[in-house]
Write a structure and sequence with these properties.
Radius of gyration: 55 Å
Structural class: alpha+beta
Largest sheet: 4 strands, antiparallel
CATH architecture of one domain: 2-Layer Sandwich
Strand content: 5-15%
CATH class of one domain: Alpha Beta
Shape: rod-shaped
CATH topology of one domain: Alpha-Beta Plaits
Distance between the termini: 193 Å
Number of helices: 5
Helix content: 55-70%
Length: 305
């Protein structure tokens, strides 16, 4: 006979095991539920992140569309600027051509102007070193002094025909050792009746050798500046006993026009001291200090007696 008590215990043990198994499964379900909850939260966060990213992508797309629009506008502006630059370049080329023509015309006018100035001075001679009668010497007095100068200093047989004579330029005062004034002088420009009369006087300038009087042709300042640049080369040619002469602002040595090289000009600027010349004269005398010669070699106011 089966013991009922044992059978009940066995059933209770089985039931207890099943309950324990159920509890174990419930624990597993709880853990699974927690994991599902965590996963759900993660998915929710992911959804939110995706929404944010999607919104940002939309913003980026809008920005790209805006940039594309601006790029197209800029591209159009660049095209317009290129067209405008092409037009400006054409205008600049036209302006450069016009400026070139104007410069050429200006150079021609300048050359003609200098030529006309030179021609207008063709009959003029400049006399230097002649004392003034007084500080306010009148033209009539100057003319009398020039006439006396022609006969007494140049030893001309007659007075050359001239139109007018007058003083010009900076006043020079010669003083005695004690500081008192010996005499004053200014250059005199004399316009002769014609070129032949002028040459008649100019060729007599050899009579002034070893004196402090001087006679020179009158030229425009531009021509004088050029002659001054060539003057050292003229002197060097003369020292070498070569035939040298000026024709306006051109120097000829042995019949060939001399054109100084850039190297020669640089050497001249370094080696040759600059001297102050009268702007209207052809060249200076070797010594401009009147006091270096005895007083008898100079004129006094009695020249206009």
């Amino acid at each position: 006979m089966v013991n009922p008590y044992l059978d009940t215990n066995c059933k209770l043990d089985d039931l207890t095991q099943k309950v324990n198994m159920i509890f174990d499964k419930m624990s597993t379900l709880d853990e699974l539920s927690k994991k599902i909850s965590t996963f759900d939260r993660t998915v929710q966060n992911l959804f939110k992140t995706v929404e944010k990213v999607s919104k940002r992508v939309d913003d980026v797309e809008q920005g790209m569309n805006f940039i594309n629009e601006k790029f197209e506008d800029a591209k159009k502006d660049v095209s317009d600027v290129k067209g405008a630059c092409a037009g400006i370049r054409e205008d600049a080329d036209s302006a450069n051509d016009a400026i070139f023509r104007l410069q050429k015309d200006l150079d021609e006018l300048y050359t003609r102007h200098i030529d006309l100035q030179t021609r207008s001075m063709r009959e003029n001679l400049i006399f230097t070193g002649i004392p003034m009668h007084d500080k306010f010497e009148e033209s009539e007095t100057t003319e009398k002094i020039i006439e006396k100068f022609m006969t007494e200093q140049l030893k001309l047989g007659r007075i050359a025909e001239y139109d007018r004579a007058h003083r010009f330029g900076k006043e020079y005062v010669e003083r005695y050792p004690d500081g008192s004034v010996k005499f004053m002088t200014k250059p005199i420009v004399c316009r002769f009746r014609n070129f032949k009369e002028r040459e008649f006087v100019r060729k007599a300038a050899r009579e002034l050798r070893d004196t402090h009087f001087g006679i020179s042709e009158q030229f425009p300042k531009e021509v004088n500046d050029k002659r001054k640049e060539l003057w050292p080369h003229f002197q060097e040619a003369r020292r070498q006993r070569k035939k040298a002469f000026f024709k306006r602002d051109r120097l000829f040595i042995e019949g060939v026009e001399y054109c100084p090289s850039k190297k020669d000009e640089e050497k001249r600027d370094d080696d040759v001291p600059r001297r102050q010349y009268n702007k209207q004269g052809a060249r200076p005398k070797k010594d401009r200090r009147f006091g270096d010669k005895p007083a008898k070699q100079f004129w006094s106011p009695n020249l206009i007696e």
